[in-house]
Write a structure and sequence with these properties.
Layout (H helix, E strand, L loop, with lengths): L1 H12 L2 H33 L17 H8 L3 H20 L2 H7 L4 H34 L5 H5 L5 H22 L2 H24 L13 H6 L8 H7 L9 H24 L3
Helix pairs in contact: 1-6, 2-4, 3-6, 4-8, 4-9, 6-8, 8-9, 8-12
């Protein structure tokens, strides 16, 4: 395992695009998390202009709810797309620069090659989860008065909402990369699927004039972002009648993990059956 990670590290060590995208992800993620409360309160102000009942400004950064709020805002499609694109580029570069063939010639098996990419995803996901966990602790501690250890730990199950999407979404990107093999084509189709095709399919399946069902919640990308369904904002319950999520459920985590396992299986089958 260490050997495979060293090989992957050597590949990305001098690859500037990887480090630029990786840095931009953390930059935009940090800025987005700090701006989330401002944007929500701006929407509240707009709502108050048309509502006879004024709604108060919202604080999303206090314990214990900060875990859920950060997990939600860090798991929207526009945030997850960054690590997905990073993995997709790394996979397709293997075919563009023929390094996959070189790895096979030097004795690496196809299973080891795939395992190396999955280990890289795991390490990147752990780094991102650690960043989010530490950021949440700092933000929560600085915005919560009368804090206790129980308050800090009460909603910490949402750490799973940090980790599971950051593992599963790059696996979806890995799937597109291995199946399509061309960087430009893979990025285009992957982006179109994430932002256009699946949302359209989601609303079509959800529409009552088709047939009443819950299938829409089981679509690959949608199942990932629904690990944390809503932020813990009381106005959502008051205005929209939503029952706010109390914790991250095992069932919600299992659906994207099953998709990820299935996609890994298809990728391995593709590696074995198709020419390099």
């Amino acid at each position: 395992m260490i050997k495979l990670l060293k090989i992957e590290y050597k590949k990305i060590l001098t690859y500037k695009i990887f480090w630029v995208l990786f840095g931009l992800y953390f930059l935009f993620l940090g800025a987005g998390l700090l701006m989330a409360e401002f944007m929500i309160n701006n929407m509240v102000d707009n709502l108050n202009r048309h509502s006879p009942i004024p709604f108060p400004h919202i604080n999303i950064y206090f314990f214990p709810w900060v875990w859920q709020n950060i997990a939600f805002f860090a798991t929207i499609r526009y945030v997850l797309i960054f690590p997905g694109i990073i993995i997709l580029i790394l996979v397709t570069n293997e075919y563009t620069f023929k390094t996959i063939r070189q790895n096979m010639i030097t004795g690496m098996s196809k299973a080891e090659f795939l395992a190396a990419k999955l280990l890289l995803i795991l390490v990147i996901s752990l780094v991102m989860t650690l960043f989010l966990t530490l950021s949440t602790l700092i933000i929560g501690l600085s915005h919560t008065s009368g804090i206790t250890l129980q308050m800090v730990l009460q909603k910490s199950s949402f750490i799973a909402g940090f980790f599971v999407p950051r593992v599963c979404f790059p696996v979806v990107a890995l799937f597109f990369g291995f199946i399509l093999r061309n960087t430009g084509l893979a990025i285009a189709i992957f982006t179109l699927y994430v932002f256009i095709a699946e949302p359209i399919l989601y609303h079509l399946l959800k529409a009552p004039f088709v047939f009443k069902n819950d299938i829409s919640t089981f679509l690959p990308v949608n199942s990932i972002i629904r690990v944390t369904e809503y932020p813990a904002i009381p106005i959502l319950k008051q205005v929209m009648g939503l029952n706010l999520q109390e914790s991250v459920s095992i069932g919600a985590c299992c659906i994207p993990l099953i998709y990820a396992a299935a996609m890994i299986g298809i990728v391995y089958w593709s590696l074995v059956k198709r020419d390099l």
